[in-house]
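User: Fold this; tokens only.

Assistant: Input:
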Amino acid sequence: MNLRRSIALAAAVAVVACSKGETPAGGTKPKVTEVPVTVAAVARRSVPVRLSAIGTVEASTTVAVKARMDGQITAVRFADGAAVARGQILFELDDRALRAQLAQAQAVVQRDRAQIANLKSREERFRELVRQGFYSADAYEQVRSDLDAARATLAADEAAVAAAQVQLSYTRITAPVAGRAGRALIQVGNAVKSTDPAPLTTIATIAPAFVGLMVPEQQLPGIRAQLAKGPLPVVATLPDASKAEGRLDFVDNMVDRDTGTVRLRATFPNRDEVLWPGQFVRASVTLREQPDAIVVPGEAVQAGPKGSYVFVVKADKTAELRTVKVDRTEGSETVIAEGLAAGESVVTVGQIRVTPGAKLAPKQP
């Protein structure tokens, strides 16, 4: 019985000693647990100042192709949605009547030229007779007038030939611009008129392509100031994360009073046709470069009841909770306006287990 009381008393003494932080006889002092975290260095470098907005892709040129004369379609010379070159034949109309008119006009021109050749020979002969005194000057003037009238008739008939050739050219409807053709809305055998409101097809030039975007009017002074120095680089990010590069080159001449926004337009070469008219993209306009900016990985910044904060790793590898002022986010990084200095280390992974003053076991990512 006495033995059991002695053992219990010894155990109680050991528990009290441990609770006071004392090392029990024959034991070791408890080890402080270190919190494993991933850290990153606070950097100072040049960071671009960008303006982002949702943009809409637009064709740089859109043309509605229509007939310039009445006629029946005899051929469609392109595939729906195909790329077409400027001047490429798209549709052909029945041209038999116009070819006959052209042949008739050309025949009249040939007759006029034959008459002029005859009158010219006569004028030379009468001129010699007048010089020799065998013919009156008044009669010679009549011969010259006949020659001049024949030449005028030839000019008029040649103009008629040119007009007939123009009319004949209208039977071949060509692409006025290079681009992507739409669907052929009129098929072979249909009759068309020049007064038809509906087009035969449409052509959209998408290389180059435009991206239009709306930005708040408060951004307008800065945009105009930078644009006065030259076109601003723009990156368009598509839904599949692919990117295209272009230049901002246009600011609309008025602000939308209903929305308080102004329309911008960027031009993209789009040679590989990754941008398609009507498509929505994320447009990012680079306004300028901010030198000596303080940046940290975006995951290092946490949101708290008093604002944004980070955990700074001190020299003794303990955690310090520090409130920071965030300027903006640039990609996967955050630009810090106040609260951090270059060269310090911040916790990027593991903040949920960190408390102020906690001992840390930092490692690089």
